[in-house]
Amino acid sequence: MVKKNFRPMEDSIRTDLQGSTRYDDYLQLDKVLQAQNPLSSEHDEMLFIIIHQASELWLKQAGFELTAAIKNVRDSDFRHAFKVISRVKQILNQLVQSWNILSTLTPVDYHKFRDQLQSASGFQSFGYRKLEFLLGNKNADILKVHRDSAFAYDELKVILEKPSLYDEVIRKLSESGFAIDESVLDRDVTLPYEPNDSVTAAWLSIYRNANSNFELYELAEKLVDIEDAFQQWRFKHMYTVQRIIGDHMGTGGSSGVIFLKRALETSFFPELISLRSQLP
Q1: Using the 8-state DSSP alphabet, how is residue 203 labeled?
Q2: CB 3.0-4.6 Å disulfide test: which of 71, 73, 202, 209 passes with 178?
Q3: What local confidence, expressed as pLDDT, does residue 254 receive?
Q4: What is the DSSP track for 14-76?
Q5: What are the pLDDT digits (tens) for 23-42?
Q6: pTM over 0.90
Q7: Residue 81: how many other CB atoms lie within 10 Å
Q8: Domain 45-164+181-278 belongs to what topology?
Q9: Contact 84, 63 (CB under 8 A)
């Protein structure tokens, strides 16, 4: 008997949804799917908008998870910290893949609608900046970019003034008996984190005695997972921009690719990267 190339409806599938929550209602798709409004008639502008909107949703989720991870670490709830940090890694991997779609946009296609952006730039992304601040790459000057957005400015200022994920992790090292300099524990958390020898020494001890410090060792490797994925995202961002606009300035006024390359030189967890050269 030849199989029919057809899947019939099952009798149990609900079709009368009055008075019940519908899929589109639950996800508020009437709002989400009406939020794509190209300013030109160019075909490729829709792709540009959707890629960035989808990325902003993933950044929001990553920020939500990292906020939970910071609390988990503070509470010594490492099991849940590992879970949400692993999720952040996968979100970043998803964001890396999004650049492959955007790279189908050719320079000719992009320049047909680029002027419509005026000064709009990814540098103004609240979700991205929130992620950077939560991970410890802080810069109070960047708040100026968000002055015209009250909700973004206020939330970023709060995050700027709170310990980052790495600040909380280092405090756990101290609480676990490792000798961490007071200058690190009492540092101004609104400033970018700078590497410290006492932190390096603590991590080296943990890595060299991984079995007896396994939770902290596993936490360290989870952080490196995030560093790795974030750097891949930064690199793919830079390379996609280079492929599309070359050495043109960014729409937000930055030097463009040159500015993006500098981000690759920054590290959220510098001691966890540098200690590799000192092992075993």
Answers
A1: H
A2: 202
A3: 84
A4: ----TTS--HHHHTTHHHHTT----SSS-TTHHHHHHHHHHHHHHHHHHHHHHHHHHHHHHTT
A5: 999 999 999 999 999 999 99
A6: yes
A7: 26
A8: Methane Monooxygenase Hydroxylase; Chain G, domain 1 (1.20.58)
A9: no
